[in-house]
Amino acid sequence: MEPKLTRRAFLSLGMVVAAGGCASPAREVLVYPHPLLRTPADPVDRFGQPLEGLARALLATVAVRTANGLAAPQIGVPARVIAARSDTGVRVMVNPEIAWQEGRFPSRETCLSLPGRGWFTVERAKRVRVVFRDPGGARRAVLAAGRDAAVLQHEIDHLDGRLLLDRA
């Protein structure tokens, strides 16, 4: 019997196990001033195989870069898709929108697209409710607070063509 690679082994190789035993490699992250980082992303209206491939690429890149989140435009895809880490794991969100927010707090953040620029302190909502679709097209919603809320707001900013530089 041939040994199987564990999920951890795939992640250490810059890959993520995908449905059906396929793997998707991590992608290079675009760096400011790349123009795509300032361009609002297009809404996703088709679900299926290409979107699943994008979701796998986002998950792989988040894992390899040990990032809290990543938006599709950061890997060169102008689509409204993000991957965001929370206490419960990493979730892919399609067409995420902030439906509700409450409170404010200073959030200390950095960005993969701004290497070498250090940390920024920006004001974020303390609590948010984000509505989105999962990669299969099902409608979902999530309530997030504190760091998790800041991650979602940061990644949604990327979908709108905004960077930390605009909020600092």
What descriptive keywords fit this protein?
168 residues; alpha+beta; Peptide Deformylase; 5-stranded antiparallel β-sheet; two-stranded antiparallel ribbon; 4 helices; 24% helix; disordered N terminus
What does this structure look like?
This protein has 168 residues and is α+β, with helices and mostly antiparallel strands. It has a domain at 31-44 and 68-167: Peptide Deformylase (Alpha-Beta Complex). Helices cover 24% and strands 34% of the residues. It contains 4 helices and 7 strands; from the N terminus they run αββαβββββαα. It has helices at 7-12, 49-65, 147-159, 164-167; strands at 15-17, 23-25, 69-71, 81-86, 89-109, 120-133, 139-145. The protein has a 5-stranded antiparallel beta sheet. A two-stranded antiparallel sheet has the order 1-2. The chain starts with 6 loop residues before the first helix and ends with a helix.
Low-confidence stretches: 1-22
Query: Roughly what is the average pLDDT, rounded to an integer?
Result: 88
Shape: globular
Helix content estimate: 10-25%
From the N-terminal CA to the C-terminal CA, the straight-line distance is 56 Å
> DSSP helix count?
4
Q: What is the CATH top level name of the domain at 31-44 and 68-167?
A: Alpha Beta
Could you give the order of the helices and strands? HEEHEEEEEHH
**Count of extended strands:** 7
CATH architecture of the domain at 31-44 and 68-167: Alpha-Beta Complex
CATH-assigned fold name of the domain at 31-44 and 68-167:
Peptide Deformylase
Biggest sheet descriptor? 5 strands, antiparallel
